[in-house]
Amino acid sequence: MSMLPTKSLLSLLSIAVSLGVSVTATPPSSLELFTRMVPPKGRTMADIDRTRITAMMGGDKKSSFPVVDATVTYTANVGVGNPPTTYQLLIDTGSSNTWVGAGKPYHQTSTSKSTGQNVAVSYGSGNFSGREFIDEVTLSPELVIKSQSIGVANFSEGFEGVDGILGVGPTDLTNHTINNSSLLVPTVTDNLYKQGSIPIDLVSIAFAPTTVENDNTTVGLMTFGGTDSTRFIGDIEYVPITQTPVSSHFWGLNQSATYGSTTLFNNKAGIVDTGTTLVLLATEYFNAYANLTGGKMNDATGLLEINKSQYQNLQTLNFQIGNTVYPLSQNAQIWPRALNNLIGGQDGSIFLIVSDLGEAPGTGFDFVDGFAFLQRFYSVFDTTNKQIGLAFTPDTFALSN
Ligand SMILES: *[C@@H]1O[C@H](CO)[C@@H](O)[C@H](O)[C@H]1NC(C)=O
Ligand SMILES: *[C@@H]1O[C@H](CO)[C@@H](O)[C@H](O)[C@H]1NC(C)=O
Ligand SMILES: *[C@@H]1O[C@H](CO)[C@@H](O)[C@H](O)[C@H]1NC(C)=O
Ligand SMILES: *[C@@H]1O[C@H](CO)[C@@H](O)[C@H](O)[C@H]1NC(C)=O
Ligand SMILES: *[C@@H]1O[C@H](CO)[C@@H](O)[C@H](O)[C@H]1NC(C)=O
Ligand SMILES: *[C@@H]1O[C@H](CO)[C@@H](O)[C@H](O)[C@H]1NC(C)=O
Ligand SMILES: *[C@@H]1O[C@H](CO)[C@@H](O)[C@H](O)[C@H]1NC(C)=O
Ligand SMILES: *[C@@H]1O[C@H](CO)[C@@H](O)[C@H](O)[C@H]1NC(C)=O
Ligand SMILES: *[C@@H]1O[C@H](CO)[C@@H](O)[C@H](O)[C@H]1NC(C)=O
């Protein structure tokens, strides 16, 4: 099927309503996620996203890693050592080194062993360098990695309010990070799989839309080695990781996009990324979207602004990935109005979350499905089968924004 029929959309909606309030206990192989919101000081949120992507588009070259100081990021509490010290780490599907020491200093225990190797990763507008250690890493009581290679920062910049990163991108992104060599560092997911703790090298992520600033409540769940059926609706559809560079180095896939009945682009490569706040489209596609919605650039936020009648007239923005259409509803296309102040916007204004990627189409990196997309769809990052899965969630059509 190339389009999801209206009937099945409606039935999904009613399932969504009935599931909407269910609260389930954290399954054993899962890690709870929290949001961290940092006002985009001196720059707009859109600029920060573009800086990250510019760095990523540097591709497989040395030091081409994303920015991590996005306005909205996700964190998890991760234990290192035995007894463990808890660190608050950013969850990043766009980089693959796990490291601590940006905030809380590394506390060595009997499980901590220096490898004698230097580690350095540059993320575009932030970076860290230090020493690589082997240590015990505890994600949950059931998810303990006995020998995880982690970075310990001696110097870091751009990681305000967090202690480091839990990198769950493709392992190849660790190339050139250790001793400036081609030694690769297995990710936490790789090691959980290798030591037999999980049946498949895969991580799944559920995010709920969030409209409250830093209230420390759980807004998401990362499940290792499986999926959590209480967090999605219907089937997960998988597509292969795209073969098109540069997207192929990340969690990249091919998709098409339509706004209402207008095609914005057909079968282009881009990425799914937890570290990007917005949905970004290559410049011509973005311009077409801006024109169709009537949005006008607001300089304070760097986002398109629309008025109430334009909001009422917003059409669905459909992303077709594989055989499924993933719709961004009217409400899913706007920034949470309760968070306008965070990004320099006025109360009562309406801003669109689709932004300019800052590059012409045709680079093999034509879009980014960031946080604004991932809070509406369940995502699965499957290293074993080199594929990405997506599914509808109880929040796909939520009127949260
Ligand atoms: C990495 O570099 C350090 C310091 O230069 C050196 O002592 C160590 O032997 C190197 N390790 C590897 C695996 O090359
Ligand atoms: C890391 O950040 C520091 C401070 O901004 C900067 O001087 C240095 O050049 C950066 N290193 C890399 C490799 O980007
Ligand atoms: C840590 O930083 C200090 C001071 O910049 C430097 O002398 C030292 O070599 C660094 N150590 C490591 C392990 O990177
Ligand atoms: C890493 O190695 C490359 C050449 O392989 C060299 O140009 C670069 O300066 C090295 N970087 C560091 C930080 O040592
Ligand atoms: C790592 O980088 C080197 C180039 O320095 C390249 O030859 C090698 O294929 C890369 N490895 C991976 C796994 O990408
Ligand atoms: C959230 O947690 C942080 C650190 O644990 C704390 O400083 C902050 O006050 C908490 N915020 C709320 C709203 O509870
Ligand atoms: C994915 O998109 C790129 C354009 O970005 C295209 O060249 C390539 O053929 C597409 N791949 C598939 C499998 O359709
Ligand atoms: C859309 O573009 C056309 C011509 O390219 C222009 O005439 C029209 O005013 C634009 N509409 C909006 C809402 O920007
Ligand atoms: C919204 O903006 C459009 C285009 O500028 C304008 O025609 C319309 O009158 C505005 N509506 C309201 C309610 O302000």
UniProtKB/TrEMBL annotation:
Residue ranges annotated for the Peptidase A1 domain, each copy included: 74-391
Swiss-Prot/TrEMBL GO biological process terms: proteolysis
SUPFAM superfamilies reported for this sequence: Acid proteases
Keywords, in A-Z order: Aspartyl protease, Hydrolase, Protease, Signal
Gene Ontology MF terms in the entry: aspartic-type endopeptidase activity
Cleavable signal peptide: 1-25
Keyword Protein biosynthesis appears in the UniProt entry: no
CDD domains per UniProt: pepsin_like (cd05471)
InterPro entries from the UniProt entry: Aspartic_peptidase_A1 (IPR001461), Aspartic_peptidase_AS (IPR001969), Pepsin-like_dom (IPR034164), PEPTIDASE_A1 (IPR033121), Peptidase_aspartic_dom_sf (IPR021109)
Active-site residues per Swiss-Prot or TrEMBL entry: 92, 273
PANTHER family: BETA-SITE APP-CLEAVING ENZYME, ISOFORM A-RELATED
Entry similarity comment: Belongs to the peptidase A1 family.
Annotated protein name in UniProt: Peptidase A1 domain-containing protein
